[in-house]
Design goal:
13 helices, homodimer, Aspartate Aminotransferase, domain 1
Chain lengths: 407, 407
């Protein structure tokens, strides 16, 4: 078939680098910090087995038939209750659309907002699979530089005046990949600017409740008088990803468009899966489960931070996330994380180079390490191997300097 | 929010008319031929309850974790086996991608093939939700005229020479909405043309196995030496729609692009749902179940055909489908099915006007009637009410003629 038989967007599409790395790291002998997998031993398999059977026996016909695009109303009501009590939002069930994973929220966002060539602002770094979804519309990207408190606001208003973006995409809480959380001051200041210029804000809250430390934060919806914020969230990280149930929360004007687009995208998210999750939430203590998950991940985060502090060579910085699943490393400028990865794989340890997480100007000396999917002793073992490889790589990269110092 | 904040494609998007009609017809007092719902009493709820519990107990972690985009390999192997033995195809598991319903197959098709302004050929009439999915890319449509044997081939080659389409979309077997099935001769002739001009062919096989009568047919893939055919199919109509498990079968060159695009669309279809369907297929007799479904639908089709023959006024033609879920009506030219629908709703019977099923030049005097979702006695009762309303509408539309005849 001739290449031009395909849509133009396909020319820029390739399988995700992370996905390709994950294929290599599936080998059981590899200690992998590469994926973004939740700890499967925390999945409530037994409870879901009981609920699934009861659901099919009691409401099987409803669960297995076609259902409204918006999603299962009792689940949308539960989500509202949660968002309004725990997240500090003010949403109603009619402002919630159930999606097939949060990735679908990103795909629907592309369709609702983006024409070819439109400008999208993202954090630098940002979630690479969001870029993958947006790329279907072939937009342009500009980055917003970040520090440990989130997006740096200086200079943003000048840019808004000159060339305002069609939308901005941000992950203010326990960001993937950096693990960073925006301060309340930044959240407020950012939304003041976006409100002033009427820019739609896509807020990715996939990790919102995966919090280990006391830290103050709230949804950007709390500073959204004009209804500009589209909030994406998911059960994948707090319950399990395999059921593919997530949601979008937005003002009536925006959510109505998401619903229309979802209808032609996949009609609806599995009603069975939605009803199953609702039954689980109704019959079990979600907060207790969440505490268990937080305790487990806190121990793993602590193990990774301690091991990195102990093992890493001088000149490497890393984040200490208060939640989420990832630590972000900034290594010396002359380190290429792709070369380091090759060295690490030989030592049976894996991670994801940070380059692809940048919308532009990717930095080759960065890396993302996941801590949610391995027990503490494996984390320590993996970090030791990683640090050893990094030290070797740093040495290998400085032969001239080393030699000239010897002279 | 300003209207131009949204993507241009949103201007042409509205909630599906069928969906809006379905909302009205949800009222229990209405006899509805409007939807396209399978008979829920045939859903294997008890069997799935047992399998779901066993699956979560035995393989819960795998079912609830992230999984490869391509889909669950044993299910893809089962699909290949089925397609190669029953459908007469020649496919391998690596040519199968599991999708979240067949509607997602249409969405992925849009992304893989369509740029703005591209020309798509469809049957006239065609499946309206396919147009909904394609509209995301803002293509142009041209229709291929059909008769009882499928697409009429006369004149197609002239058009292929002049302005070849980017792709064609067809439903050769038990078409929604017309119920028609292409003859073998038309299938062969159509594929000869498409092969000669190298046009990708999207073949929608959603109803492929929902056959009541002996009729010869095969997938267009049987006449596809160049690997141009993308075959969409689903478990929705033969098992249940609520699990949202369907598939795309295509040559390696094409399926690899569908996989890349699905990755950024929703990562994967629920692994749990895929494994659940596979367990059901492995542990139960699918063919026996299919026979039961065919017997049930045949009785309903027969009841509707008999009632239509008996009750309809002169001058109305309708199809006698050998499979699928729909009968298509062509009423006198001066009848507007939308006005008829309003009259019918007052008589507590509903259907879908045919107008929206046309890619262009919609015919207002057509209607789609579903027979899969009501028992025979309700079908007879509904057809009587429908025929009565149609007779009234025909009379109301000819006052001048009637009056002048009286003079």
């Amino acid at each position: 078939m001739k290449h031009n038989r395909f849509a133009r967007r396909m020319a820029g599409m390739s399988a995700s680098e992370v996905r390709e790395i994950l294929k290599v790291t599936e080998r059981p002998e590899i200690l992998s910090f590469a994926g973004g997998l939740p700890a499967p031993e925390l999945f409530p398999t037994k409870e879901l087995a009981v609920q699934a059977k009861a659901l099919l026996e009691e409401e099987g016909i409803r669960a297995l038939q076609y259902a409204p695009t918006e999603g299962y109303l009792p689940l949308r009501e539960w989500i509202c209750e949660r968002m309004n009590t725990v997240w500090g939002s003010q949403v109603t069930p009619s402002e919630i659309l159930i999606t097939s994973g949060s990735q679908q929220g990103l795909d629907l966002t592309t369709k609702v907002f983006l024409d070819e060539g439109d400008l999208v602002w993202c954090e630098s770094p940002t979630y690479l699979a969001a870029l993958g979804a947006f790329n279907a519309a072939m937009p342009r990207y500009e980055e917003m530089v970040t520090d440990q408190d989130g997006v740096i606001l200086d200079g943003l208003e000048e840019r808004l005046k000159k060339t305002p973006p069609k939308m901005v995409y941000v992950i203010p809480t326990f960001q993937n990949p950096s693990g960073r959380t925006w301060s309340m001051e930044r959240r407020r200041g950012f939304m003041e600017l976006m409100t002033k210029y009427g820019i739609p804000v896509i807020e990715d809250n996939a990790y919102y409740e995966v919090r280990f430390d006391e830290v103050e934060y709230c949804s950007l919806k709390s500073f959204d008088p004009e209804g500009l914020v589209v909030s994406l969230a998911s059960f994948s990280k707090v319950l399990c990803p395999g059921l593919r149930v997530a949601w979008v929360a937005a003002s009536p004007e925006i959510i109505s468009r998401y619903i229309i687009i979802k209808q032609s995208t996949d009609l609806q998210t599995s009603n069975f899966n939605q009803m199953l999750i609702y039954r689980f939430l109704k019959n079990h203590d979600f907060d207790q489960r969440l505490e268990q998950l937080r305790d487990t991940y806190r121990i793993r985060r602590d193990a990774m931070v301690a091991a990195l502090e102990e093992e890493l060579p001088e000149g490497v910085n890393f984040t200490r996330p208060a939640g989420g699943m990832f630590i972000w490393l900034e290594m010396p400028e002359n380190i290429d994380a792709h070369a380091l990865l090759q060295r690490c794989l030989k030592a049976f340890v894996a991670f994801v180079p940070g380059f692809t997480f940048y919308p532009e100007n990717g930095r080759r000396n960065t890396a993302r390490l996941n801590f949610s999917n391995l027990p503490p002793e494996k984390i320590r073992q993996g970090v030791r191997a990683f640090a050893h490889c990094l030290a070797e790589e740093m040495e290998a990269r400085q032969p001239q300097a080393a030699l000239s110092a010897e002279k």
